[in-house]
């Protein structure tokens, strides 16, 4: 990452507060202005000066660098969560079959984890906790908003971009996208 532009101490505190300050301060230029230690004559002056600070090229570059670093950290964290996703899926499958998975064992991909059949309310309570933990892992590994946003727009273009090929190079599919318009004369049934 390129070095951050030289900022004076007040500007550095402003950038810090604006990008990583407490709730209500982070992302709020006026609140970050106050939190950085500036002492304006009025709220209006604070808002104007905070807007000017955000318009400063060096400050804008510093904020952008911090945001890029945060995005990279989020992507790295998603990658870490994806490692936990397959065992979470196996746990959910076992629970769906009424089996409380054993911690010591691992099953091949797609197989149900070995364990004991749930028989008591305590087993069900443990299973419920395991289910919610597994679902939380899957949500962190595959955030629904990210995937919904990507697939709702143009899944073929997204797939082509991931594979590094043109959309025309993708093999034809027999399944239609659930949001795609279908014509009755294209359907094999009608």
State the low-pLDDT regions, or none.
Answer: 174-190
Helix content: 55-70%
Tell me, rounded to a whole number, the average pLDDT: 75
Structural class call reads mainly alpha
Q: What number of domains?
A: 2
Radius of gyration over all CA atoms, rounded: 25 Å
**DSSP E strands, number:** 2
Ends: how far apart? 58 Å
Overall shape: it is: elongated
- H/E topology pattern: HHHHEEHHH
Overview of the structural elements:
By secondary structure, this protein is mostly helical. It has two domains: about 10-55, no CATH class; about 75-170, no CATH class. It is about 60% helix and about 5% strand. It has a two-stranded antiparallel sheet with strand order 1-2. Helix 4 packs antiparallel against helix 5 (about 120-140). The longest helix has about 40 residues, at about 55-95. The protein starts with 8 loop residues before the first helix and ends in a 27-residue tail after the last helix. Residues about 175-190 have low confidence and may be disordered.
Short description:
The chain has seven helices and two strands. The protein has helices at 9-20, 29-35, 43-55, 57-96, 121-141, 144-153, 155-163, and strands at residues 99-101, 115-117.
List its salient traits:
disordered C terminus; mainly alpha; 59% helix; elongated; single chain; 2 strands
Topology:
Elements (H helix, E strand, L loop, with lengths): L8 H12 L8 H7 L7 H13 L1 H40 L2 E3 L13 E3 L3 H21 L2 H10 L1 H9 L27
Antiparallel strand pairs: 1-2
Helix pairs in contact: 1-2, 1-4, 2-3, 4-5
